[in-house]
Amino acid sequence: MTSRAFKAAGEDDAPSSVPEAGPAPDRMTGPVRGPARVGLVLLLGSLVAIGPLTSDMYLPAFPAMGRELGASASGIQLTLAGALIGLALGQLLVGPLSDAVGRRRPLLAGIGVHVLASLACAWAPNLAVLDVLRVIQGLGCATSTVITMAIVRDLYQGDEAAVVLSRLMLVLGISPILAPTLGGVVLTQTSWRGIFVVLAVASVAIAAITAAVLPETLPAQNRRRGGAGGTLRDFRQLLHDRVFIAYILVAGLAMCAIFGFVAGSPYVFQDRFQMSEQTFGYVFGAGSICVVIGTQLNALLLRTRSPQHILRRALTMAAGFSVLLLAAGVSGQGGLWAVLLPLWGTLTATGFVMPNAPALALSRHGQFAGTAAALLGAVQFGVGAVAAPLVGMIGTGTTAMATVIAGGLILAVTVLLTTESRTATPAEQP
After folding, report:
1. Does the pLDDT at position 8 exceed 70?
2. Burial class (CB in 10 A: 0-12, 13-18, 19+), 366
3. Residue 429 CB-density burial (10 A; 0-12 exposed, 13-18 middle, 19+ buried)
4. Residue 127 to residues 73, 79, 98, 104, 355: CA-CA distances in angstroms?
5. Distance CA 305, CA 281 (A)
6. Structure confidence by residue, pLDDT tens digits, 163-220
7. Most-buried pick from 259, 284, 291, 368 (CB within 10 A)?
């Protein structure tokens, strides 16, 4: 396959007048549709998957890592927070850079950083070194995360962007399910260090395919100039857009449902309800599938409803289910199903929120989509870096998990409805 397979519909074969170092792939300056879009989504999905694989694949190795490195469980968990911090900070750096120099070069360079950091993690002599390397690994992951979002905005707008993001959310929903399982398989053949070697090899393969088939999606004439001063002006313009800020806050706060579930569910189901590891795996997988179902139904619903319409109703439903979950935790009544049903309802409704809030945010600033995607991603992973340990600080029961989930979603509804009431938007057509 060559990069020509992803040429935009209707684009001619005229060579670009702007030279680049090395073999210049074809450019995409418009949306890819038809069968070629399937290939594009698969490629972008593999790039998006680097983040979840990096954060979740080594989870089954936590006990072994603690024994070998002489670290406590909370100390090992800091390596997860380190990766999330790297993901958040890295996007703030890479997003503006990609607006200035294009998408391909920062993308490939970032994957290279991830490869080197992954190999270094495999030989980390102690926990302190591993913590630092995990931050660097997160910085490399940030490149693929933020630039993938920017590429979607380069090529698609409005409802079409939300549909493509819904497909990418399928990857984000499946990856956390498969990553720990894949890590467990790797552990049967090698130690926890081998997991990081596998991550490096996978990133090399993804980088090779990306270099071969993905064209540049940001033409030279559309790139941002002005250096650091221009970047600061872009950030200032974004921060002055109240609606944009509202959408990225909604996207970030909605992640409380995901990270609260990931951080709290082992304690809720394995400790309180005494589930075996295998049974818990099924329950965790069912929760992830709920998110996937929401994102994929969203793509169908966008045929007849606007993203704003879906976002408002789905977010309200998610908050409502989360309140029921909190009530079950506080009362302690109803048993397992009183927890599972509202939890699954919350996650399914959140699946509708995850593609639409980012799509609506990015649609407002296409001229610097990378910078906008950077702020979006930094807020999302920043919330994750706070929400995950917050569950443990509150406690280990259903109430702790539900408090973080409900708190984030109620705040998200408040932000969205307050912003809508203060902006004079015309009545929305269903």
Report:
1. no
2. middle
3. exposed
4. 12, 8, 33, 34, 36
5. 35
6. 887 778 777 667 766 777 788 888 888 899 999 999 999 999 999 999 998 888 888 8
7. 291
Q: Are residues 410 and 346 in contact, defined by beta-carbon separation less than 8 angstroms? A: no
CA distance 291 to 295: 6
Percentage above 70 pLDDT, the chain = 86
For 27, the 3-state DSSP assignment is strand
**Burial degree of 274 (CB within 10 A; 0-12, 13-18, 19+):** exposed
Find, among 206, 202, 58, the residue nearest to 133 by Cα. 58
If you search the block for the tokens 């109803």, which residue do you land on? Answer: 334
C-alpha torsion 63→74→258→130, nearest 10: -70
- Asked which of 131-135, 257-261, 409-413 is least confident by mean pLDDT, the reply is 257-261
Count of beta carbons in the 10 Å neighbourhood of residue 259: 24
Tell me: the pLDDT tens digits for 293-337?
998 898 889 889 998 999 999 999 999 999 999 999 999 888 999
CATH T-level fold of 35-422: Growth Hormone; Chain: A; (1.20.1250)
For CA atoms 174, 180, 183, 184, the dihedral sign is negative
Half-sphere exposure of 34 (CA within 13 A, CB side): 7
Domain positions in the chain are 35-422
